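STRUCTURE:
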């Protein structure tokens, strides 16, 4: 729905999405200004802000500024703009905020995005006569436009001039806004800076002042990313100059900027202001901003006396050599998002986290890959680089790592740098052709290594640096000059590399052809895109300014990424630039994973992992977990703990690990999968129970807790002892969209939250101790408690030296005491309700999950007609029917609450009851497998095989017989399996379901023609593919997917001959091989 809005009798008009509200003032003698701003938990009404700033800063050289000390924020052209119109686009009904609901909005580059949301366009105009220099003038008292002076629709501006459109966009239900600016003219006119965000903070409405405000900002450099700082604003450049005696706008400012395409290589394009009440000292509200650009940017915080403002830019002339002439067409600034909420800085970070998720989903919807985004968000990657091969891959080192990664449960095996090197290490300045090495991978070559990866149930990943050509590469001579970034007529060179200019069709064709070839030839399912060199200020050919050339290149690169994702929606892409030197949300809204650092020291890495959630979504934080076989238990736990609450990125010589160390890695993988599922189902957001992590702190903490739409929050600042008091109150019903009700944080004046005991789980906390005191206090409401989940205390043999920490809960504090203060240590805890039965054992802690990426990356959707025709018990053959009847009789004496094993012959032939008894386990366990069962037959007999026993746990392995039919696709199999799970969940709410991976087969030992015919359809490749589909189904149902296959595999990934009767079924030795892992599963 589109409409124009008119200012009221005071010249004011408001816009928002029901959660965030912006109030503007329109004037006859002044530009539009932001008078009021509120977000989640804040009052929507209140006094308007004194000395509110214009919503646009616009610098042109002919009019300049009113204050040469503030070259970007006192622009004359910005103050010459006058209101023309305000147009609103809104979702027309509840649910229109979903991807693909129709409509289109403009991205920062002015292109349409198919995502329906709340949108406001404010148009202003300045004539060239108004822009002529007339001498310095002070701001006049603004005279409001009245409704009578503003038409219902815009009228054409009189005479030549500049038209400026400020765009605000808000996703339904979020307390965040995305904004950018479009500038156009009907004749040539040069501009040197235009703001994307000019935000006046609502200080007067919230009893705030600069003296009670904190600024949070971050430095960043190679191997020391996300180094966050917090300081009172008066301890920065914004000193108190006494505005009573020295009135007017301050010429001081706090500013950060990035000079080139390492957008996060010096500072983060994010910041936070936390404003406390001057009368109570309690945080009243907080604001966070992020500049979403993969090139140069600048933000600044300034003081208006009274009042504070935040202004954000993309490239500009003074620092980035950027200008543009409007005769070349409209200019659209880079987008900026900001969030606002009542309470401390963590509330603003929470809202920005939700905004980042929405940006990812919106971009995925635009590119037609929403399903692929959801499917790949839980895949786990092993990469052979960090503290392992360091860019020197060879056949003899890769094959053991492939086997080890599969045992650990990785879904993707990424071969990092060097796979293209035929010169034994001299590749740095020769890259660009990206042809596989001729001397590293034996006769089978890279293709053979790729097959080995897939044969072990993983997708192939390759490292690639697509934006560079080495100066010694043949392509440096064969590609035309226009393919490269150039200045002063010469190619720009950095560290022996030329940089491709993605405005050039020749450059794009080369990179597109390279990526397509690698996917087609080697079946690449994952790329790690690296970026280790930069072009400086940019390219000056054909643009007039180097900064404009660089901006054009950056936007062309994003367009190329969009095209790549449309054509290859299943391929995952990691964003890397010497670690996290380009970790901005222009990139990350499009890509799947972000390398958080190249840091090799796990103790230093903890600080990076602790702070990464300030700028990167948890599910995108590629935090290295590089456990090594020679590490002591505490160090191995320490490095793995850094990845569990983010996106665990495995490396290390996993092939050399003993059983205990490998089991520890598998524990981390299993817990990490549970966390990833929680991120999806509960919108888990970062939380810092001990306050902002400082890079040099002895103790570091970071957690995940349910977001404001899905769960309750908790906590106080562990450093200051101050309670998180101001909360998300919901602030009344939303005006648009029926959203889930908000769970409130504690209202002002309460030290703890009201806990809903039925909720059970409230998230996770990772704690690192790098030195100092042996104990740490974490504020925690008395209704909650911490339970250690990593290392898993129920299986101490996996890390025997890493003994559990002591946890004492008392008076709203959880005191953690390390078991051994002699070395660094880390633990992961689950936060649970004291009143809920949450005795926790790490799901699947002793088993691996090996998934075939060919299935995990597929795009097909389960058709509604996929299931087989309905089967009834009477339709069973006599042998199956007799077994079902026998089970019906046996069930009469079964005590409820036990464990039931169900499935086909692979389950029936498992002498699990006898083996469990021999192991001394006293478990109420019953095997109800039926040889020959297909999925629909089990569904028809679900009462006899599962439901009548009223179990608390179900372990199921069904579907291999379905795969004997070549017509049974993964989609059909999943549809049949899904019907079973739905029926179980309806009849037995809360049941714990474990789905076993299908066992491998070995056709070489098949004993007769019938078996050989079965195995012709039920191949290992097909079983691996089916396992990927079943694992995804398990994730959808909140079930555990457990792979017991590691001890069963021979060197070729087949079922070991000594473990099978005839190539298809396990014998007694085979079942005994998987028994230890199965017993651990039962104990958990």
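SEQUENCE:
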């Amino acid at each position: 729905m589109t409409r124009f809005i008119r200012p009221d009798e005071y010249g004011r008009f408001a816009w928002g999405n029901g959660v965030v509200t912006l109030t503007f003032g329109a004037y006859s003698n002044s530009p539009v200004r932001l008078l009021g701003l509120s977000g989640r938990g804040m009052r929507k009404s209140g006094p308007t802000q004194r000395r509110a700033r214009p919503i646009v800063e616009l610098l042109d050289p002919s009019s300049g500024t009113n204050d040469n000390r503030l070259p970007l924020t006192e622009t004359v052209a910005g103050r010459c703009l006058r209101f023309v119109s305000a147009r609103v686009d809104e979702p027309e009904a509840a649910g229109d905020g979903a991807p693909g609901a129709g409509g289109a909005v403009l991205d920062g580059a002015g292109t349409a995005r198919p995502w329906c949301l709340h949108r406001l366009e404010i148009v202003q105009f300045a004539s060239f006569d108004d822009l002529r220099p007339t001498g310095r003038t002070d701001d006049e008292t603004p005279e409001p436009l009245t409704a009578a002076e503003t038409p219902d629709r815009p009228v054409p501006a009189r005479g030549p001039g500049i038209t400026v459109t400020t765009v605000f966009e808000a996703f339904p239900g979020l307390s965040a806004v995305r904004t950018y600016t479009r500038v156009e003219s009907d004749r040539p006119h040069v501009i040197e800076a235009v703001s994307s965000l000019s935000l006046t903070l609502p200080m007067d409405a919230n009893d705030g002042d600069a003296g009670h405000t904190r600024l949070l900002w971050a430095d960043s450099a190679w191997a020391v990313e996300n180094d966050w700082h917090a300081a009172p604003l008066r301890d920065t450049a914004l000193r108190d100059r006494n505005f009573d005696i020295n009135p007017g706008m301050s010429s001081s400012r706090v500013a950060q900027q990035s000079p080139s395409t390492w957008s996060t290589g010096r500072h983060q394009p994010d910041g936070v202001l936390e404003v406390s009440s001057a009368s109570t000292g309690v945080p009243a509200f907080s604001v966070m901003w992020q500049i979403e650009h993969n090139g140069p940017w600048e933000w600044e915080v300034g003081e208006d006396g009274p009042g504070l403002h935040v202004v954000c830019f993309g490239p500009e002339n003074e620092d980035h050599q950027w200008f543009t002439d409007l005769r070349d067409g409209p200019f659209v600034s880079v987008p900026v998002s900001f969030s606002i909420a009542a309470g401390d800085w963590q509330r603003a970070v929470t809202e920005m986290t939700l905004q980042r998720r929405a940006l990812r989903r919106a971009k995925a919807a635009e590119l037609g890959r929403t399903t692929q985004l959801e499917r790949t968000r839980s895949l786990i990657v092993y990469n052979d680089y960090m503290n392992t091969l360091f860019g020197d891959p060879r056949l003899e080192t890769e094959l053991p790592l492939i086997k080890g990664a599969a045992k650990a449960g990785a879904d993707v095996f990424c071969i990092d740098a060097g796979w293209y090197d035929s010169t034994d290490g001299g590749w740095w300045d020769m890259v660009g052709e990206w042809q596989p090495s001729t001397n590293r991978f034996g006769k089978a070559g890279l293709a053979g290594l790729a097959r080995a990866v897939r044969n072990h149930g993983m997708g192939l990943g390759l490292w690639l640096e697509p934006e560079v050509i080495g100066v010694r590469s043949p392509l440096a001579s064969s590609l035309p000059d226009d393919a490269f970034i150039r200045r002063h007529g010469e190619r720009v060179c950095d560290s022996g590399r030329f940089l491709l200019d993605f405005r050039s069709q020749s450059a794009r064709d080369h990179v597109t052809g390279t990526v397509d070839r690698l996917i087609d030839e080697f079946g690449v399912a994952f790329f790690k895109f690296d970026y280790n060199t930069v072009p400086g200020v940019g390219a000056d050919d054909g643009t007039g300014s180097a900064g404009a050339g660089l901006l054009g290149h950056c936007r062309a690169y994003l367009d190329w990424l969009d095209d790549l994702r449309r054509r290859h929606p299943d391929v995952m892409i990691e964003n890397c630039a010497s670690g996290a030197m380009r970790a901005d949300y222009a990139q990350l809204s499009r890509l799947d994973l972000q390398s958080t650092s190249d840091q090799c020291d796990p103790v230093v890495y903890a600080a990076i992992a602790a702070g990464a959630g300030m700028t990167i979504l948890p599910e995108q934080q590629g935090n290295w977990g590089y456990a090594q076989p020679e590490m002591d238990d505490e160090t191995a736990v320490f490095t793995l703990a850094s990845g569990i609450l983010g996106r665990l990125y495995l490396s290390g010589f996993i092939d050399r690990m003993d059983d205990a160390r490998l089991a520890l890695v598998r524990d981390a993988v299993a817990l990490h999968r549970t966390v990833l599922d929680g991120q999806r189902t509960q919108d888990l957001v970062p939380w810092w129970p001990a306050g902002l992590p400082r890079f040099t702190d002895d103790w570091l903490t970071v957690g995940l807790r349910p977001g404001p739409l899905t769960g309750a929050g908790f906590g106080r600042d562990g450093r200051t002892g101050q309670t998180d008091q101001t909360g998300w109150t919901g602030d009344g019903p939303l005006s648009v969209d029926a959203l889930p009700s908000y769970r409130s944080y504690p209202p002002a004046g309460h030290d703890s939250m009201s806990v809903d005991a039925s909720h059970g789980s409230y998230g996770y906390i990772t704690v690192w101790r790098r030195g100092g005191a042996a104990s740490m206090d974490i504020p925690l409401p008395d209704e909650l408690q911490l339970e250690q989940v990593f290392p898993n205390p129920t299986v101490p043999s996996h890390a025997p030296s890493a003994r559990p920490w002591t946890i004492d809960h008392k008076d709203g504090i959880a005191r953690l005491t390390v078991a051994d203060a002699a070395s660094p240590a880390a633990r992961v805890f689950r936060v649970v309700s004291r009143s809920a039965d949450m005795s926790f054992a790490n799901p699947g802690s002793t088993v691996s999950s090996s998934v075939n990426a060919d299935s995990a990356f597929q795009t097909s959707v389960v058709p509604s007609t996929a299931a087989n025709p309905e089967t009834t018990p009477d339709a069973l053959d006599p042998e199956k029917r007799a077994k079902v009847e026998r089970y019906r009789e046996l069930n009469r004496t079964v005590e409820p609450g036990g464990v039931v094993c169900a499935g086909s012959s692979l389950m029936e032939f498992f002498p699990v009851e006898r083996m469990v008894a021999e192991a001394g386990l006293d478990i109420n366990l019953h095997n109800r497998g039926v040889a020959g069962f297909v999925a629909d037959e089990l569904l028809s007999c679900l009462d006899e095989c599962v439901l009548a026993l009223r179990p608390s746990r179900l372990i199921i392995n069904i579907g291999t017989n379905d795969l004997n039919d070549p017509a049974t696709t993964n989609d059909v199999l999943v549809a049949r399996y899904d019907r079973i799970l739905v029926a179980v969940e309806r009849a037995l709410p809360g049941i714990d379901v474990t789905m076993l991976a299908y066992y491998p087969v070995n056709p070489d030992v098949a004993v007769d023609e019938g078996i050989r015919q079965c195995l012709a359809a039920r191949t290992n490749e097909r079983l691996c593919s089916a396992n990927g589909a079943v694992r995804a189904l398990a994730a959808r149902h909140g079930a555990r997917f457990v792979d017991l296959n590691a001890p069963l595999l021979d060197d070729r990934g087949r079922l070991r001959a000594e473990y099978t009767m005839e190539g298809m079924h396990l014998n007694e030795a085979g079942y005994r091989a998987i028994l230890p892992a199965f017993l651990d599963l039962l104990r958990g």
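REMARK: The domain at 860-1083 is CATH 3.40.50.1110 (Rossmann fold).
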